[in-house]
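Give me the fold.
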Amino acid sequence: MIKNYLTIAFRHLLKNKIFSLINILGLAISMAACLLIFQYVNFELSYDDFHEKANRIYRVRFDRIYPDKHDQSAGLTAAAGPALKEEFSEIEAYTKLWSIYGNNILSLGDKKFKEDRLYFADSSFFSIFSYPLLKGDPATALADPNTIVLTTSTAQKYFGEEDPMGKFLDLFGPYGRQSFLVTGIARDLPENTHFKFNALCSFQTLVNATQGRAADAWSWNAFLTYLLVSPETDVRQLEAKLPAFVEKYYGPMMAKQDVQGALLLQSLPDIHLHSHLRFEAEPNGNAEVVTFLIIIAVFTLFIAWVNYINLSTAKSAERAREIGIRKVAGAYKNQLIGQYLLEALLLNLLSLVLAFTIVQITSPYFEMLTGKPLTLNFWKDDIFWGILAGVAVLSTLLTGVYPAFLLSSFIPVKVLKGNIAKSTRGILVRKGLVIFQYVMSAILITATLVIFQQLQYMQDEKLGFDQKQMLIVEAPSIADSTYGNRQNNFKMSVLSNSDIYQMTVSTSIPGEEIGWVNNGVGRQGSDPEERTSCHFIQVDDDFFETYQIDLIAGRNFSQEFGNEASAVILNKATVDLLGFESAEKSVGQELYVDEDTFHIVGVAPNYHQQSLNQEYYPMVFHYSLYGRAYYSLKVNTRNLSETLPFIEKQWDTDFGENPFQYFFLDDFFNRQYQSDQQFARAFTLFSGLAIFIACLGLYGLSAYTAVQRTKEIAVRKVLGASVSGLLALLARSFLKLILLASLIAIPIAYTGMQRWLADYAFRVSISIWLLLVPMVAILLIALLTISVQTVRAASANPVKSLRYE
């Protein structure tokens, strides 16, 4: 019997080539889209799951709630980790890390490289995290001061094939020159971890360099602190005890500053998608992106399923006589249902094979699109096979059950008399499914438009400074007592080149998070208990001119004034935060920073230090001629082939012991939007596929409608109807449904995109045209799809059509 079912199923597929192709292609594309999205989602959800103790590791989040803002930080105070371990028996161990900021250089003789992702880490690091050491003892590798653990690629960069164990490297960083003994080699880290390092230096080295502050300071809050809790710990109960801990250790200090504090525990696997705090180790992913892509995958599948159901029920009249004859011949209803379910299963299996082929071909391009190292080994994942089996069964049932029950329920006497052709059975269902398809399509088009408009807005919006033609040279880390003279010589030399217009020195540049945050900032006459936090940048007297930031009050820094070391310039956000009546009235006032007093000499306008996701920073600019982080040069980019070698040559003259490294500010700043751009491209791709599948279904329905009304079209043509009139006649019913779908989609799309935009501090407003354009686009797409078949039917010779009928 199964063989007979399969024979009939294949005959039906071959007999209806167009409809079979539409169904197989639609299902295959939707399944391929789901498989690709599964790869991405699976990768995003896999972050840090390779750690053996991942479900017991928690990072401590530190929140400080000021009267005017809520600061959320991944950085905890230095002394908190040991105190937490001592206070709570549920905590088995802790480890803390401190990112080595600035332009750090690791050196081995003549080999000098600027290294990012350098951390001081305490000795318990490898007992908590599962970063395997290829060489060295995990328990002791970071126990002694001035020891270092390298990753495999970092070790090869300095030592090649030579064994690095027991050899020394020099670090030129914030604490000058420090020598480190290599005591361990770690395997290169996987991509799916929220914390990446190139080298780990022993934490005791930092403790010694800071005279113990890194061990016991309660006011230094830039340490990533992770806790390992015992297996039986109820984390919610542990977290409920933390307010008392905060009151005990932070209470007196925070009461003076009118600040409320809170400690929260972040599960290690949740950090990548659900944490966007200050002092994050890496830019994290976005749970909403994952959710959006899952929704698109589901939408795409549903649209393909709807196509199958629509086309199957639309063709029910053609199969009615077959069903009538088979019933008269003795076929039972359950046999007919089995037949049509088998047809659905066969079509879904063919679609799945084609989907796998599409995934194999497109996966490398999808990897480039998302920027993730996605691989095609997902078939080794039990979850994948579970999802695949679920999709296959669900797809077969959803596409097969309704048509099977509909077709098997026909009454033989009626269908053999031909009454089924006039029946309205299934028409309302088909209309509802068409509406559903185009509601989803309209939502996807609206979402795509809003996403791209927001991205365009972020890239085109005035940032408050000039980033064009700005070359950033990373300042030297290896320096001695002659550094000031050498910097002056470098600056005068490069400015002698007519293609280099300006140069400034600063400790931070736009596009990066400012790490220097002081919590004890207050205005003249303010209560010491009302201090607040501000971000600090050291700049020289050319900073504002180089970045074309015009002060709105007061003056710029200048060496003509005697005591500029005590002068500061505020931005407008700081003026407002401290409660000054105006920018003008803040000039000349005193600013208290902890125990120091500064004089406010000017006020700068707000500018976007980071992406438009962030509010304006309250910033304090402190004067310093010899900041050692960045040199910003305004250059003529049309002559870079000569300008860059000139700068590098002068660099080698003045700072030859330092590697010459540079980048352009606009590229650096726009990197903040890279993940948004990748999401927009992926969203647009899969939205386009969903809409294409919906159009396939509409094409099939319109083709079937045109065939059904062949005689009517011929008669109308003979009576003088034009092609445009016939097009309007046949398209009217579809366009009404699509118009209704668009009206339903508008409030849904508006609500969803408002929620998405809420994550951006600076965002576009959803105007009426953004809601109307999808409606018009859907109507035009549908009209074009319907026109292909309608024009073909209307252009046919009516004589042949009538003769055929």
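The CA atoms of residues 303 and 437 lie 6 Å apart.
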